[in-house]
Amino acid sequence: MKLKYIFCGLTSCFLLGLSSCSLGYDPVDTYSDVTEGVTETGKKVVFKDKAAVESHMTTLYKQMRDRQEHWYVDLLLIADAHADNAYAGTTGAEVVPFENNSIEGSNSVLERDWNRYLEDIARANLLITNIDLVTDNALTTVERAQYKAEAKIFRAMIMFDMVRLWGDFPVITTIADDITAENIEEVYDQYFPPQNTELEAYQQIEKDLLDAIKSAPNNTPGNKTLFTKSVARTLLAKIYAEKPLRDYTKVIQYCDELKADGFELADHYSDLFGMNAGVTDIKMRNTKESILEAQFTAGSGNWCTWMFGRDLVNWNTQFSWAKWVTPSRDLINAFTKEGDNTRLNESVVYYACTWSNYYPSDHYAFMYKCRSAYSSLIKYRYADVLLLKAEALILKESPDLGAAADIIDQIRERVDLGKLPTSVRQNKDAMVNALLNERRLELAFEGQRWFDLVRLDKVEEVMNAVYAKDSGRKAQVYAFGKTSYRMPIPQSILDANDKIHQNPGY
After folding, report:
1. pLDDT tens per residue, range 189-239
2. Nearest CA among 281, 256, 486, 287 for reference residue 380
3. Disulfide: which of 28, 239, 270, 321 matches 37 by Cβ 3.0-4.6 Å?
4. Considering the entire predicted model, what is its pTM?
5. Structural contact between residues 124 and 60, judged by C-beta atoms closer than 8 angstroms
6. The CATH number, out of the four listed (1.25.40.390, 3.40.50.150, 3.10.310.30, 1.10.1760.20), of the domain defined by the range 1-216+454-506
7. Where are the domains of the chain?
């Protein structure tokens, strides 16, 4: 059996980069994703000129547009259906375990996500580790620093998703050497790296972001698809709210820096997700609230709406099978209890359909924040950041409950809700619950809910109670506990690499 088959056939091949599996040398004029060949002296050339670097940057950005399955579709399943916002939606064995808490290492969704996240990291590593070796003088020092910064922000974003899902995972920042018969013993371990700790993962994310913020492009109001300084600041605010690096002073600092970058709430909540009057295109792109989004226009639309509901531009497209992430009765009741009709109507819609897994087929609830093939998929927006600042103000060593309440009231005012009552504003525990509720209603179906519960140690309290009060949920298989905070590592990864160990509880 050839060495190439042995190693490239394993998922772990992707862990250390896309240049890792070729035993052959290609001529310099033959391009591939792996390498642009070697020189006459045998030196490998990854990017032969500025154009090759810029082509690879385009590939990184296309990951946000064309590879949305893991960072958007699957993340919504995990964050909303594994929490109390949604039911799985279909009866498929790959999705139901997120609703009834029976997830195992054999889950195909998690296996797909692990592999694709690491492929994304490998693509970023390829640029980060090789851009300074490009000999083309047309690629200026400033451009090298900027492209490397953008790639580091992309890598940090991917690692942030991974560490919140799995905790410990291999933190890979290099590219493996090619394997030959002569160096196999020396190179072998590069293909099977050990896990890093959750803390080490966060420290790498922090390092990438602090490095990147120096050279990344500034926020561009007319283009929110770029990995800018503002995206780095958003991620820094988010990582400093997490337990391993928790520093509420820094959360507040980076939230304030985003305000200085020019971000504020959109005038109307419907500006974020709505369609135009003719239902032919999204209402707005690049709102003043959006920090990072993937954009789709006529002729280059996305397919995510197929997974969640109707495509309003093509009414019957892919609407013959049950959809994922069905809004839960508990979430709908939470909107109703608050009198929050604006966000309810922007988050949940009812259609007639041909299935009745969770609701009557003639009045079935669907997630509504992705409405057509032209909807922008918003990864980060300012309301999330504002509420993180409120969280920091509540939970820091010397709480400022009044300032936190003012932020929550600002979010509520946009959707015509009243201010928090005095009894809540003056009680820390009540403010934590108010914050969590506000984040739930504001950010429903945006991949936040599960991670909010984990970050604030509310998983057991919330999730073990919801099955009894939500008549639509499938029966709970296992109770939630501290070992539930991480997802199981895919069994195929454990089988391929004995240096990676399963998370406790699975």
Report:
1. 778 899 999 999 999 999 999 999 999 999 999 999 999 999 999 999 999
2. 287
3. 28
4. 0.92
5. yes
6. 1.25.40.390
7. 1-216+454-506
